[in-house]
TrEMBL record:
PANTHER family: SI:ZFOS-911D5.4 (PTHR35287). It comes from the Eukaryota. Pfam families: NERD. This is NERD domain-containing protein. Coiled coil: none annotated. Keywords: Signal. Residues 30-147 form the NERD domain. Residues 1-17 form the signal peptide.
């Protein structure tokens, strides 16, 4: 019996090593997943397009400003900051937040999220102007979303509750109605304007945001995501040679498909990738190319806000999107 148990444990560890990745398991409640959860719900509720993980050049600081997401609908757009915090938040008179009782078991301090989001909107507007997209005054609005169900509540010290903040209770009650909280964020800047002008600016804005600098995006099994920078592949030399054409200058996206479920040492994966087309957002289905590599091949990826380079087995990856 002990031999059977021992063999069972060995098989379990082999299967876990092959089908799972410790980094994947660490990301079950990550801030990245919260971003994409919010973005997906916004598109389902109100349509339009949500751009996640923008890195907008800031001319004043000479650096890039990270923006969680921008939700674009015709005649309006919202810059959104997502705070995946739990516990109880105190808002000081200067707008800064102190979060206590959360999952990290220690008080966390944040600069005023509302002020930061408004600054991001200003930087984004300047960037769009530089790229020839002049938006009417008041086109952008700002919101801070708290989507974590373990968020308990607010205590505001020395001022009113910030109207730009959407708490968890408010977030789950949103409905796809014309007068709901999200669809009524912005007074349309084009009311009474020409329809042609509305559509022209809307198209320019969407094209510019779709080609703006963004973080690379790694989609993992189990609807998990990581934003950061793709560095390289690691594995057998023949697999690396097969993947040599997958570089951000040439490829915009790759998708992983399993071709063999068994034979752990020799299992292969099918990698489909689309050549980059700078005139549009992606390639058509007929333009996808294909290579086959070992499932043990790894993706080297450095997540945003981390100094550690992580390794993800291709067997745990669904897709990889590379910023231009």
């Amino acid at each position: 019996m002990w031999v059977e148990i021992f063999c069972g444990l060995i098989i379990f560890k082999l299967l876990k090593w092959f089908f799972y990745d410790d980094d994947v398991l660490d990301l079950e409640s990550s801030d990245f997943n919260a971003l994409f959860s919010v973005a997906n719900r916004l598109e389902k509720l109100y349509g339009g397009k949500v751009y996640v993980g923008l890195r907008i050049p800031d001319a004043d600081s000479g650096s890039r400003q990270n923006i969680d997401m921008v939700h674009v609908n015709k005649g309006e757009a919202v810059v959104i900051s997502v705070k995946n915090i739990s516990g109880f938040v105190s808002v000081n008179s200067d707008g800064s937040w102190v979060c206590e009782g959360g999952s990290k078991h220690k008080a966390e301090r944040f600069p005023d999220p509302v002020a930061e989001t408004k600054k991001q909107a200003s930087i984004l507007e300047s960037y769009l102007e530089q790229r020839g997209v002049a938006l009417p005054e008041g086109y952008f609005s700002c919101k801070v979303v708290l989507p974590n169900p373990k968020f308990w509540g607010f205590l505001v010290l020395g001022g009113p509750f910030p109207s730009e903040v959407i708490t968890y209770d408010e977030w789950v009650k949103l409905k796809p109605e014309p007068k709901s909280m999200f669809s009524g964020w912005i007074k349309s800047a084009f009311r009474g304007g020409k329809k042609e002008m509305q559509e022209s600016i809307h198209q320019k804005l969407n094209f510019t945001l779709s080609t703006a600098p963004m973080w690379d995006r790694l989609e993992l099994k189990g609807n998990k995501y990581v934003l950061g920078e793709f560095l390289d592949f690691k594995g057998k030399q023949e697999d690396i040679n097969a993947l040599k054409n997958i570089r951000r200058s040439k490829v915009s996206r790759l998708i992983i498909q399993k071709t063999s479920m068994f034979g752990l040492a020799h299992s292969k994966l099918q990698v489909l990738y689309s050549p980059r087309d700078y005139r549009s957002e992606g390639a058509s289905g007929s333009e996808w190319k294909e290579v086959t590599v070992r499932s043990s091949t790894e993706v080297l990826f450095q997540p945003d806000n981390s100094t550690e380079v992580r390794k993800f087995k291709l067997s745990s990856v669904v897709s990889l999107t590379l910023s231009a």
